């Protein structure tokens, strides 16, 4: 189905500076990054190394950017990266990353060095947005000379520390607002025509078509199905318009598209997608599903790598 006309811009004409400013003026904070996220990070100092890797100066506010690392970083152990909140509005991505740190990271640090960046896009978290204030989607901007400060900050940190990773898992959601707001806004911004996709009811993953890892993706799905339901394919055998590779798994080209999954050269990568608007899932269940995805991925590596 196609969407209604978006209230900003002229159909068929990409936005200029005036339209982007009009869009920005309509955004407002609906929740607090400092109360919801930073407060939780501040409780972790006695168990983990917490580093500020950058800051974003937006909308008369400065958002410090934090990552959490397991202690006794050991160069003989493989490194694992967990990211959340690349799209700030995807709540369980942020809180799933934090829950994994609090519940499981110390246990897995026996075998791995673990680095977690729980909220890449704090302005997006506060305003419940996919974009940053410049109408840029961070999850299409993990590229050299990125136009998104959210991406540049974490990319610069990893480059400075010359970190290599065995695994990177990026925690996301697919929500009803993808069709009601964010895809129509994207089409309006770019001067194109939007065709909405069917929103999958359940959990699925996006693997990297540039380096497929079917057994790894299956391990994530099998771990999550113990917590919540796996999204079925639509009537065309697809999820969000992409062909099904196996139950609950589709592929995107990570580096080519500038996705966060392409942030590193890790051979094992996955983007999780939880459906928080399901009648059959609670907010707590969505967070638990994200934790199960991370632990299922790590357990696979322990057994096979």
UniProtKB/TrEMBL annotation:
Q: Does the keyword Ion transport apply?
A: no
Q: Which GO molecular function entries does the Swiss-Prot or TrEMBL record give?
A: hydrolase activity, acting on ester bonds; metallocarboxypeptidase activity; zinc ion binding
The prosthetic group or cofactor this protein requires is: Zn(2+)
Family annotation (Gene3D superfamilies)? Zn peptidases
Q: Please state every residue range assigned to the domain named Peptidase M14.
A: 29-305
The catalytic residues are 273
Q: Which InterPro entries match?
A: AstE_AspA_cat, Peptidase_M14
**Gene Ontology annotations of biological process type:** proteolysis
One Pfam entry name = AstE_AspA_cat
Q: Which UniProt keywords apply?
A: Hydrolase, Metal-binding, Zinc
Q: Does the keyword tRNA-binding apply?
A: no
Please name the SUPFAM superfamilies in this protein's record: Zn-dependent exopeptidases (SSF53187)
Q: Which protein family is it in? A: Belongs to the peptidase M14 family.
Protein's UniProt name = Peptidase
User: From which lineage does this chain's organism come?
Assistant: Bacteria, Pseudomonadati, Pseudomonadota, Gammaproteobacteria, Alteromonadales
